[in-house]
Design goal:
The complex is a heterodimer of chains A (about 280) and B (about 210). The radius of gyration of chain A is 23 Å and the shape is elongated. Chain A has one domain (about 35-245): Rossmann fold (3-Layer(aba) Sandwich), CATH 3.40.50.10160. Chain A has helices at about 1-5, 10-25, 35-50, 70-85, 100-115, 130-140, 140-145, 185-195, 210-215, 225-235, 240-280, and strands at about 55-65, 90-95, 120-125, 170-175, 200, 220-225. The two termini of chain A are about 20 Å apart. Chain A has about 280 residues and is of the alpha/beta class. By secondary structure, chain B is an all-alpha fold. Chain B is about 80% helix and about 0% strand. Classes of the chains: A alpha/beta (about 280), B mainly alpha (about 210).
């Protein structure tokens, strides 16, 4: 019996995971979501720069693609909502070629929702190869790094970007990153040299990697995974897909923990039986 | 010449990179901007080499009818479809910015996006199955790792706060202290390794990048 449980058919585990994700979408229940200090710092910074007479400018670098869209897009939408609500201007770019259309769609959707004008309130510059080198280059020569936006408009003629010469002319930089060519490169190639306010938005699995940068002050805020996005949605009081996603994620985690504990119980019982057999 | 030229270039560019980074002068900034721009162009050119290498590998696979050669046909189909639609650009041709809601965007939204999302979502199932089979407290160290992992996994989801408010705090503490200390040590190790490897390349001690001589 124990041996059977020990070698449980993986399709049973798959079925449990499937149900643990599906059922919480159908059965709604409330969960307490409280923003941690790293998410709150990002929120507070956007609030702070919105007080500027010019409205403030954020550079959002969409350094991910569709594979991590489910985790990072809710955060991107929540931060854009917050920025547009507060009349903060947003410039978007990508270090991942596969994320260009996705990032542009998110920016267009949010701009439409808040009635923001392309070129005046927001701009999307697209993708350019180089990652770390691009970050270093645009930090010194913004117009040289991106001569045009995705519409083909010259960047030195776009009202939002014409006065941005270096990264220092931007109030807040954030990378929405799913790996290489994201947060770490921004810190290594640009932030540590030019010392500006920088925040990261990342997948839950990579969030622990960035804690040393938080302590050193190179990164002053972090929105980690879908949970971070749900916390941000709570702060701006605009429930979206992240808060909805907390139910299946919570239940799936519980099921996973149950299987890990159950697997260990089976392992120890099995070990005891084996020892008894050896003695006999 | 074949050996000395790359070694000299590596030596000059290596020192130039270090010096320009530490000299806060306008000339150094201008020079750095030009160098990074040049390197970005080089990376873009290298992409063609990568493309040639990829297509050549799949072409050989098709020619020799190796196992799974049908998938290689899909690589060619995907590549040429995207290339043709990208260059055609709904009649505007490739020297103009990509047309909104054109074929390239359609293929990206309705073929590429669902495929990539599906691939990644399958991971959840495999992780659950792998965790059940392999995440065992076989030793004291594995036991500590298991308890920490379970506490973090549980503490980061809001349902834990509903059960006991201490769970999120424990998870946060684990992330901010033990995790950060270990990560920092790893980063220091990596950084020192990168510095020593860079110096070896600059001084011509490490030559494997020239063709595996070591």
């Amino acid at each position: 019996m124990i041996q059977k449980l020990f070698n449980i058919d993986r399709r049973i585990i798959f079925a449990f995971i499937f149900l643990s994700v599906l059922l919480p979408f159908l059965v709604k229940f409330d969960l307490p979501i409280e923003a941690d200090k790293n998410v709150r710092t990002v929120y507070n910074k956007i609030e702070e720069i919105s007080q500027k007479a010019s409205g403030g400018i954020i550079l959002m670098s969409f350094d991910y693609d569709n594979s991590t869209k489910a985790e990072l897009e809710p955060a991107a939408r929540a931060i854009l909502s917050h920025a547009f609500m507060k009349n903060v201007k947003v410039i978007g770019m990508s270090n991942w070629p596969n994320g260009v259309t996705m990032a542009k769609t998110i920016m267009e959707d949010m701009a439409k929702e808040y009635g923001k004008q392309n070129g005046v309130d927001w701009a999307y510059l697209g993708y350019k190869s180089g990652a770390g080198l691009l970050m270093l280059n645009l930090s010194m020569d913004f117009h040289g790094a991106f001569p045009t936006d995705t519409r083909g408009e010259k960047i030195d003629q776009i009202p939002l970007t014409k006065n941005i010469r270096t990264i220092k002319d931007i109030d807040y930089v954030m990378s929405l990153s799913a790996g290489s060519g994201g947060i770490e490169e921004w810190i290594i190639y640009s932030q540590s040299k030019y010392n500006y306010a920088f925040a990261g938005v990342c997948t839950a699995v990579s969030a622990p990697d960035y804690f040393p940068f938080l302590q050193s002050g190179q990164m002053h805020g972090l929105v980690g995974g879908l949970a971070g996005a749900a916390q941000y949605e709570t702060l701006i009081n605009k429930p979206g897909t992240a808060i909805d996603g907390m139910r299946p994620q919570s239940v799936a985690h519980l099921v996973l923990i149950f299987f890990i504990i159950f697997g260990n119980i089976c392992y120890f019982v099995n070990k005891k039986f084996d020892m008894k057999k050896e003695r006999a | 010449m074949k050996k000395n030229l790359p070694l000299t270039i590596a030596f000059i560019m290596g020192w130039l990179g270090i010096l320009l980074d530490y000299i806060p002068h306008k000339v150094s900034e201008v020079l750095m901007t030009s160098i990074t721009k040049g390197l970005m162009v080089t990376i873009a050119i290298v992409a063609f080499l990568g493309l040639y290498s990829l297509l050549n590998m799949h072409w050989i696979k098709i020619k020799r009818k190796n196992a799974g050669w049908g998938y290689s046909l899909l690589v060619f189909a995907g590549f040429f479809f995207m290339l043709i639609f990208g260059l055609y650009n709904q009649g505007d041709l490739f020297w103009k910015a990509q047309v909104e809601q054109g074929m390239v965007e359609w293929i990206y939204t309705y073929i590429f996006t669902p495929c990539q999302e599906t691939m990644f979502s399958i991971l959840a199932f495999f992780i659950a199955s792998a965790a059940y089979r392999t995440f065992r407290a076989k030793s004291m160290e594995a036991g500590i790792l298991l308890v920490a992992a379970v506490l973090v996994m549980f503490g980061v989801v809001p349902i834990s706060g509903k059960i006991w408010s201490g769970f999120p705090e424990i998870a946060q503490w684990l992330l901010e202290y033990p995790n950060m200390a270990v990560k920092r040590a790893i980063f220091f190790g990596i950084a020192l390794g990168v510095v020593s490897m860079s110096l070896r390349i600059i001084f011509g001690i490490e030559r494997s990048y020239m063709g595996g001589e070591g």
